TrEMBL record:
Pfam families: Lipase_GDSL (PF00657). InterPro entries: GDSL, GDSL_Est/Lipase, SGNH_hydro_sf. GO terms for molecular function: hydrolase activity, acting on ester bonds. The keyword Lipid metabolism applies. Belongs to the 'GDSL' lipolytic enzyme family. This is Uncharacterized protein. Signal peptide: none annotated. Keywords: Hydrolase, Lipid degradation, Lipid metabolism. GO terms for biological process: lipid catabolic process. It comes from the Eukaryota. Gene3D superfamilies: SGNH hydrolase.
């Protein structure tokens, strides 16, 4: 993809400006994909001490590979190589130019102290340091054009809401303030993150919404366990989903305003929530049989203990919506990736344009 850039790098310095930084493999206007986020973009490969933490009681939260997740599936559609994790790289220029995944399982938008997993702000600092490395290794104009022609994906909020509904002690006051109050805090920080990326010359940015957490096996089990369930016909906890919907609504609204604020950039919001609810409401249309139980887990609907051994997995994961306590199966992510890319089989997942249109849009 980036042989045009790499061929002019000699002993870590750029000797001349390449004619283009676009992906010459397929003619797109994308140089690389950089990903920031939580467990929606990372399987634990980029979380320090994850094997000891067993994040959310799952050792294998997404079938053991980031390749099953939405950003990697989109990278494949764009024609980009598999994205290396930030902590899995060797620090070479070639790996940085190939794109990086800064995302970390259990990362949150809200910085919850020095002992919390990588927050949004920590990942933004890592992005800034990475782009500074590019400026040092390449000449400034080349680094600028490379950054502008790359896509930055942000997927946060899932872990903030899981903490909110599963940790009664530290967040009970936040719940009392209501859904809009909490969503405003998170959406404002996400908007600030997009502005930060714009300031470091990112021009193509994708923001992913939060999936329907109220339908996840663990949240449904917790609600039933506490006898506080307000379930719908799909056994989804409605008040939890209502909070997620409010966040997605506000983030989508802010992305629209940012597009007006920065006309030389293009921000896309992908509504993962509505995409998954389409599947959950009519699973048979998409080849699914089980919308309630985890493919890998123990207890009622596999929701009590997460995926701690691959021997626990169901026989046919592709018929399940949920892989473990909180994460969808690769089959679901593949459908979402198709919809994000082309608008099919689920229309209007991403707006104002599809990811395919974003990729081939010249700014």
């Amino acid at each position: 993809m980036l042989m045009g850039i790499l061929s002019i790098v000699h002993h870590g310095k750029c000797t001349e400006t390449p004619p283009a930084t676009a992906n010459v493999k397929n003619g797109s206007h994308v140089s690389a994909l950089y990903v920031l986020g939580d467990s929606s973009v990372d399987c634990g490969n980029n979380t320090l001490f994850y094997p000891l933490l067993h994040g959310r009681l799952s050792s294998y939260p997404c079938n053991g590979s980031d390749a099953t997740l939405l950003p990697q599936l989109l990278a494949e559609k764009i024609g980009l190589p598999s994205i290396r994790s930030f902590y899995g790289q060797n620090g070479s220029l070639e790996e940085v130019l190939g794109g990086l995944n800064f995302g970390s399982t259990q990362a949150t938008i809200m910085n919850q102290g020095s002992y919390s997993p990588q927050s949004l702000n920590q990942q933004l600092r890592q992005v800034s340091e990475t782009l500074q490395l590019l400026q040092l290794q390449l000449n400034q104009d080349t680094a600028l054009q490379f950054t502008k022609s790359s896509i930055f994906v942000l997927s946060f909020g899932k872990e903030d809401y899981i903490d909110l509904f599963l940790d009664n002690n530290s967040t009970s006051q936040m719940i009392q303030h209501g859904a809009q109050y909490f969503a405003n805090i998170l959406a404002n920080q996400m908007a600030n993150a997009v502005r930060y990326l714009y300031d470091v010359n990112a021009r193509k940015i994708i923001c992913l919404g939060i999936l329907p957490l109220g339908c996840t096996p663990r949240i449904a089990w917790e609600s039933n366990h506490r006898s506080a369930g307000d379930y719908n016909r799909n056994s989804c906890v409605e008040h939890v989903n209502d909070w997620v919907i409010e966040y997605n609504r506000l983030l989508n609204e802010k992305i629209g305003k940012l597009n007006k604020e920065f006309p030389d950039a293009l921000m896309v919001f992908c509504d993962v929530y509505n995409g998954m609810m389409e599947i959950i409401n009519e699973p048979w249309l998409y080849g699914f049989e089980d919308v309630k139980s985890a493919c890998c887990g123990l207890g009622l609907n596999g929701a009590v203990i997460g995926c701690i051994s691959m021997d626990m997995t169901c026989h046919q994961a592709s018929t399940h919506v949920w892989w473990d306590l909180f994460n969808p199966t690769q089959a679901v992510n593949a459908i979402l990736a198709d919809a994000a890319w082309s608008g099919q089989p689920i229309p209007d997942l991403c707006h104002p344009i599809t990811i395919h249109e974003l990729v081939y849009k010249k700014l």
